[in-house]
């Protein structure tokens, strides 16, 4: 008898795993338990031990696990004991594998290896180009061919490879990660294919020597790694299934991406936070630091093991003097760098967008390029590499230096032009590239800056995996160097008034310029930290901070950040940021911006209303109210759920069942007394909802074991709408007239699908309705579908008049609510905090309006465009929060619904009753 | 007539400012407008121009402002024109003053000055002590007296001064700021008095040379500055009134506090985020950076101007070699420092708490110390300074060095003990203190570490303004130095295998140790950044990061952070943090922890129910449901509101009115026909709610202008309960029997008051009910209160049976809702994100339970103590978010309520009607 109890508990737990439909499941569970008990003691034991293992796994303690396991083990034979123990120890080991820090270490290690390997390949590629170029120095034309062909081939291959394997791998990746961390599912964005495409494409693209960066793509690669690792490790453990955990891990991965790219753990964490988040959980802070530090450490250790470096140092180590890094009177010059960089950064973003929009607008070009997809990359590469050809124009802009080499020379702590003329160039290899016999070093620098500026803006539009951070960083360094050299020429003996001579260090200016320009383009302050970590010196902290802040202030007031600009170009969903200190935001209320004409469905509506509502609008979720009079908001239902409800009601299965019942009834009438219940049979079944469910459940018991496999990692959720639109095709053509009507009118489903309600992921049990339909289509093949179109239409009309049964429908019972007087500022905060897509406006429980991202965006940007200031649109990072649970809350609704439907029903469960049952 | 329209608009806007009660206010506004129109053209014009100025101010644009002003200016005389212009320009200037960046610059400037001044005074104090001590070197006893008396006097003065002026200034301030940023109002915590007490007390405390720090207090001082500055600037502008803005500014102030204390802007921002926030808005990031950078800049510039420094450099500049900062093989030693620091940090927190708890527990000691409050500081100071007396025990622990001096010597880049014996001490002044003729330098270091460890833990319990960061930092540096010197002694020629000899740099170890120990005590990673900024060198980034992360991992698994420990000691409200990767948190559901027995009131309850509910529990808010059967949650009402409702119902005013009416009726009956409406007069008034309001409004029109002054800065909100408890005292003693009964049973109100619903600040209009009561008490003094106690009791009984009129009651119409299946993890996230105190658990609109901080804390800590891991309790920083508006939502409720009360009422406003009116 005690065993019986165990069995029931086991069954009940299984049921709980997939949500509960009604209390009647308890009855089902008992039946199932009885069935199982009969099917043999042995199986039951193994099944029970499995359950215990799972429980123990959750506790994760070996000692306890053994003790609590004993009483059960005593019953079973010795062989079982051993197997149970083995399984248990295995589980224990695996549970350790599931811990966060192991995941983070693996991620860090993997990313460090990837980063190092990519760097290694890039260096080889670049060396190969140099070798080819150097070997052909007898003939300039051959040299030119070698110089130009090499990058063109590489870029074209990269573009082609990415295009073929995974077009999602194109571009930086930071805008997409920002969108994903806001809670939007981007299709195919975190797959292995994309990973391969991104890594190979990036290596080739950077190996070509084009002005492209590896930072953005590395954020994406790290996220891909995290997602794949998560998927891989979910084979062992249980927690990898959790949605919010995955988001936390993705946030850490972004930090790792930046960290291992620059060997800058702190800067990486900060940069990734600034670039991808709106609200950051300090709780997740350590994850980023831990993984990024480990990754950066391994990345640099690999360099030491490879004998590239003697010990772990910074990537672009500088050797400025420590005693007197800069004079107080040099600060205005640094401020000038900051302000100019701000304008420059805004210009860069604008230019980049302009190029994309120009190509898009010119229909002829666009059509031609769409046909010959690889032509654009090839042309751009050809153009840029022609200009940098060292014996040609490249000689005036240090064209023969790679990006890394130019950065190293720019950060050099020697002064290039003391009196306006280069002096000490002789003994340094690469710095000589900046010196031209006829041309002043200032001219070289200016040419470098101007040419690289538009080249970078152009190159980042090539459809290969590439970032813009590094090119911008180099341009900024060059600009800083220019100012520094000018200062050095102006004050040859330094500015200091006291006796000691401290000459000006132009390299310091380069550091400031690099941080300022990259900060301006990305709208981040943490480039300052990245710069310190890259150079290994923090002595210029105040100038860098001042310049970065000024650059940010200027750039943010002129243009969105590069990533936000790309988000807009790609039309990803976003939420614009409120301006700096725009206090009128505190005065706009929700009632001023909300949509008052809310589409809703009532609890006692019929399928026809549903049909009409679905036809008339294309909102992704619909409000469920008690009645049109009271308007008390009960929850929200996803459109797809309603569509699935409707397709079930009008679907072929039910029709076939109807036909079967009709024929059965006819047969009965033929043979015995005619009790004529065939016509309203279906109607009665609907009225007695409680029993209908249990029949449905039991009638599909063979389909049940399917749902016993562990939940899949929800990272890549299939969009709901897509599944719903699958339905009609799986049924026969003439199946649903009203249904077809509906699906033709369904909104266009793009590749991306917003999770309207953050906490309402599509849990597996809700996929079943569609499965069930398909299964039953196969099962019920024996019944002949002999209805005419007219009959079908009639039948459907009848079906549409029935009241909706919300039993199998997933309802979000607590959608986010605002009130009329909530200020825009607060609404924005809540939307970005919780990653909402829409919120209902209620007044004492009554639904009076709805605010969606669109309205909010309009309200913010409307006022922003008037003022012409600040259009920075960060998106919420935080998807792990919201208002509702991830599982079914059907019971209570059904109770309410039942109460509405049949007020006479005596069995009214009190809430406490049902809750006690569920524990 | 156009003017008429203007007038009405003006009036209407004024009304909007204070929320709207019902549509009838429009009528009132019209009446008021008519009255104003009659009171003279002149006044109306000036009033109108004032309104326009205010509007223009909000736009903040001078050119536009002039143009739009013209048509009105034409009507008024020239003198007015000038005055209007002056006012306008003034307003424009002031509007600029209102911008964030000006506030932040002012804050930064102020704090830099304060920090510099405090440092200056401390240096003078310490020099004075040294001078006294040095001057008396003829007599050891006199020397001892001087050495000991000086700190005792200073500490005693500091303790006394703080005690007398503002006891809130005692201690670090970071725990309190954490609590404040979570949305809890700490009384008297941000006042000018506290500011003075904190600054003076801190200067004296640090001037005494005790092992105390200035970091924590500076966070508090900066917040005080921000609050006071905010208050000051609200005299000019309008936005300083905003609650959420103040929280944003306080967050920035915390960053400034750390930043200007260490001249570490980046580390300051990060440290303040880690220490005070749970969720951080990246939007506010720049504020912190901007203000902290400016502050750090000014702080260092002041040093340059004071000729202390040649240029802006780090506070504790190090000069380690750049080429080969450390060998890869030294990393295990750094890891050891990290792990040991982790244990040390946990021990420090434990020791600190132990001392406090020991003194608290020992009743006798406690009672004695409570009487002689200054004795404990004096005794502790005497004890500590005796031990550090340089000719005494102090000689073995470098006792004569100040904190700053010891830190400078510890970070020195020379090796003290090459072969275990000090070598190069001769030419360095302060380092000599570490060298004792008889004793090894290792012994000195060990003694220093051990003695300073408990001294610091003890000293931070002295009731003066003091932090623990700096002492811990120094101890950590000493420990690092110890390991470093050991390594140097072990490997005299460095570890490197290749030819070149790179000797070990013990100073680098000191840097690592300092970061690791302070990171362990405060549970932060950003001490790493602070260390880089303090030393001006980032070359040891990887060892520092590794050590800090390891130290954090160890310390967080053993003890809460020092600040959280203090929060618990002080019994401030807090929310414990979820463990690192405790995945079972994903499996606990709200239904497992919620309280099912919810106290609620129904919409149609009578005052007696209210009375009973208030008597039976002491929850701060009560749920309002539609009815006991439906249990549909309509909102929540604060306890104080209900108390005020009850006191109004049973208050003297109403009774006097009743008496007056009775006498009037009696008189009437005496004179003319008796129409006997006196008895149910009051009842009718309640039934016709709509009209009752407008009468109340108009009857107190003289009280109206009071509310026209701008809203006060809501930073220091008076707790609601206090106001409510004021009421009975303002009435006469024998006024309310049931009422007195109630207030005796009211919960104990401490100095702090949680804002249960973040978005429901006490907006001014809700203060009026109490005001109104008091005013009318004065007005109605002419009626004689001739009722006997028995009559009063009878009258009260009758009153209690009436239905509650929720019209004047502030209802939060959208309290936060969870559902049963919400996981603990998500609940925690939501609570900390939104700074909630409690949330209702609903199921399709029906209230089924409530979860408060208490339950959540129990659920988290219950499981945590079982596992014995991680009890870090960060509190949400973010108060600027929640679920409801800050203003009245009464209209809708009243409609609903009216509908319930009198279903026959034909006038039913549709939501759209009322909303259109409000625009």
Describe the structure.
Two copies of one chain form a homodimer. In chain A, 60% of the residues lie in helices and 4% in strands. Chain A contains 37 helices and ten strands. Chain A is mainly alpha-helical and 919 residues long. Chain A is elongated and about 115 Å long.
What would a concise description of this structure say?
The structure is a homodimer of 919-residue chains. Chain A has 37 helices and 10 strands.
Low-confidence residue ranges of chain A: 1-30, 40-76, 419-423, 676-781, 863-919
How much helical structure, as a percent, in the residues of chain A?
55-70%
End-to-end Cα distance of chain A? 21 Å
Number of strands of chain A: 10
Strand order of the largest sheet of chain A: 3-4-5-7
Oligomeric state of the chains present here:
homodimer
Structural class of chain A: mainly alpha
Characterize the overall form of chain A.
Answer: elongated
- Strand percentage of chain A lies at under 5%
Biggest interface, chains and residue tallies? A-B, 129 and 128 residues
Sheet with the most strands of chain A? 4 strands, mixed
Quick check: average pLDDT of chain A?
Answer: 70
Q: What gyration radius of chain A follows from the Cα positions, in whole Å? A: 33 Å
Number of helices, where a helix is a run of at least 4 consecutive DSSP H or I residues of chain A: 37
């Amino acid at each position: 008898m005690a065993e019986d109890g165990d069995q029931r508990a086991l069954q009940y737990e299984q049921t709980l795993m997939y949500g509960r439909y009604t209390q009647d499941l308890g009855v089902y569970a008992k039946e199932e338990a009885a069935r199982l008990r009969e099917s043999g003691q042995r199986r039951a034991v193994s099944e029970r031990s499995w359950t215990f293992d799972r429980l123990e796994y959750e506790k994760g303690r070996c000692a306890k696990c053994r003790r609590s396991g004993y009483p059960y083990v005593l019953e079973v034979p010795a062989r079982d004991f051993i197997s149970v123990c083995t399984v248990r120890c295995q589980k224990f080991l695996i549970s350790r594998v599931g811990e966060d820090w192991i995941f983070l270490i693996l991620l860090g290690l993997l990313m460090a290896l990837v980063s190092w390997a990519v760097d290694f390949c890039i260096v080889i590629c670049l060396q190969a180009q140099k070798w080819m170029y150097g070997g052909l120095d007898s003939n300039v034309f051959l040299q030119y061919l070698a110089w130009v062909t090499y990058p063109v081939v590489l870029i074209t291959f990269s573009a082609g490879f990415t295009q073929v394997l995974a077009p999602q791998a194109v571009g930086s990746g930071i805008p997409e990660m920002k969108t994903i961390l806001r809670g939007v599912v981007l299709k195919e964005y975190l797959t292995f294919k994309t990973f391969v495409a991104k890594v190979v494409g990036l290596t080739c693209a950077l190996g070509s020597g084009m002005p492209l960066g590896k930072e953005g793509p590395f954020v994406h690669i790290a996220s891909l790694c995290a997602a794949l690792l998560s998927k891989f490790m979910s084979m062992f453990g249980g927690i990898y299934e959790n949605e919010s955990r995955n988001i936390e891990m993705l946030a850490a991965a972004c930090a790792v991406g930046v960290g291992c790219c620059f060997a800058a753990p702190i800067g990486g964490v900060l940069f990734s936070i600034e670039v991808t988040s709106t609200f950051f959980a300090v709780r997740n802070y350590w994850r980023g630091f831990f993984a990024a530090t480990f990754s950066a450490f391994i990345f640099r250790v690999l360099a030491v093991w490879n004998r590239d470096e003697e010990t772990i140092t910074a990537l672009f180590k500088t050797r400025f003097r420590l005693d007197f890094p800069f004079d107080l009177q040099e600060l205005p010059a640094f401020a000038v760098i900051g302000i100019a960089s701000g304008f420059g950064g805004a210009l860069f973003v604008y230019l980049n967008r302009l190029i994309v929009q120009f190509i898009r607008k010119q229909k002829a070009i666009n059509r031609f390029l769409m046909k010959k997809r690889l032509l654009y990359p090839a042309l751009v590469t050809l153009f840029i590499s022609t200009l940098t050809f060292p014996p040609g124009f490249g000689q005036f802009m240090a064209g023969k230096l790679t990006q890394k080499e130019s950065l190293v020379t720019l950060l050099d702590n020697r002064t290039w032009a003391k009196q306006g003329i280069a002096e000490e160039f002789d003994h340094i290899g690469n710095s000589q590239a900046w010196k031209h016999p006829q041309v002043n070093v200032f001219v070289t620098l200016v040419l470098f800056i101007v040419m690289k500026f538009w080249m970078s803006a152009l190159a980042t539009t090539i459809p290969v995996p590439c970032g813009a951070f590094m090119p911008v960083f180099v341009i900024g360094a060059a600009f800083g160097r220019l100012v520094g050299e000018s200062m050095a020429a102006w004050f040859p003996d330094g500015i200091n008034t006291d006796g000691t001579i401290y000459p000006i260090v132009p390299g310091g200016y380069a550091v400031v310029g690099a941080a300022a320009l990259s900060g301006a383009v990305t709208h981040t302050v943490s480039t300052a930290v990245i710069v310190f970590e890259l150079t290994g010196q923090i002595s210029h902290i105040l100038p860098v901070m001042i310049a970065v802040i000024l650059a940010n202030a200027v750039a943010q007031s002129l243009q969105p950040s590069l990533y936000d600009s790309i988000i807009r170009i790609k039309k990803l969903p976003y939420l614009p940021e409120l301006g700096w200190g725009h206090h009128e935001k505190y005065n706009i209320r929700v009632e001023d911006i909300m949509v008052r004409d809310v589409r809703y469905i009532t609890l006692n509506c019929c399928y026809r209303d549903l049909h009409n509502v679905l036809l008339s609008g294309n909102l992704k979720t619909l409000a469920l109210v008690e009645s049109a009079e009271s308007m008390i908001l009960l929850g929200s239902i996803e459109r797809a759920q309603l569509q699935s409800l409707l397709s079930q009601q009008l679907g072929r299965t039910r029709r076939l069942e109807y036909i079967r019942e009709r024929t059965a009834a006819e047969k009965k009438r033929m043979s015995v007394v005619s009790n004529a219940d065939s016509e309203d049979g279906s109607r009665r079944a609907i009225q007695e909802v409680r029993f209908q469910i249990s029949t449905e459940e039991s009638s599909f018991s063979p389909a049940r074991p399917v749902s016993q496999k562990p939940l899949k990692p929800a990272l890549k959720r299939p969009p709901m709408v897509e599944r719903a639109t699958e339905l009609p095709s799986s049924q026969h053509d003439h199946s649903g007239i009203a249904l077809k009507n509906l699906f033709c009118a369904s909104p266009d489903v793009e590749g991306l699908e917003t999770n309207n309600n953050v906490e309402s992921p599509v849990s597996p049990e809700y996929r079943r309705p569609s499965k069930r339909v398909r299964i039953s289509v196969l099962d019920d093949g024996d019944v002949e579908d002999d209805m005419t179109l007219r009959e079908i239409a009639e039948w459907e009309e009848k079906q549409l008049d029935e009241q909706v049964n919300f039993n199998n429908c997933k309802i979000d019972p607590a959608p986010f609510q605002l009130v009329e007087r909530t200020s825009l500022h607060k609404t924005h905060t809540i939307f970005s905090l919780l990653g909402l897509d829409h919120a209902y406006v209620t007044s004492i429980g009554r639904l009076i309006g709805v605010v969606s991202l669109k309205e909010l965006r309009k309200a913010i940007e409307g006022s922003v465009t008037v003022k012409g200031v600040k259009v920075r649109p960060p998106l919420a990072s935080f998807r792990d929060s919201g208002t509702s649970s991830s599982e079914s809350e059907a019971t209570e609704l059904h109770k309410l619904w039942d109460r509405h439907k049949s007020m006479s029903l005596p069995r009214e469960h009190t809430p406490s009753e049902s809750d006690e049952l569920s524990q």
